[in-house]
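Below sits the subject:
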Amino acid sequence: MSRRIDSVKSAAAVTPADGVSIGECRGLYLGVGGDVAVIMGASDTAVVFKDLAAGIIHPMDPHTVEATGTTATDILRVW
């Protein structure tokens, strides 16, 4: 199911760090594309989104963006 993001009101840089909460998030913007490892919701297992494109907002609500497994850079969380 697709979740549309009509507009965002805020953005903040994300530094990938294993086990560190990123706060409120409705999507991730990548300045440089690549893999993004995240932990979603109540899970404690990382999921790796492979080869995400740069320059667009990827709708998701991760709890963390893990350093291990993330190759994308210049990441912003939007909400």
Q: What stands out?
A: The chain has no helices and seven strands.
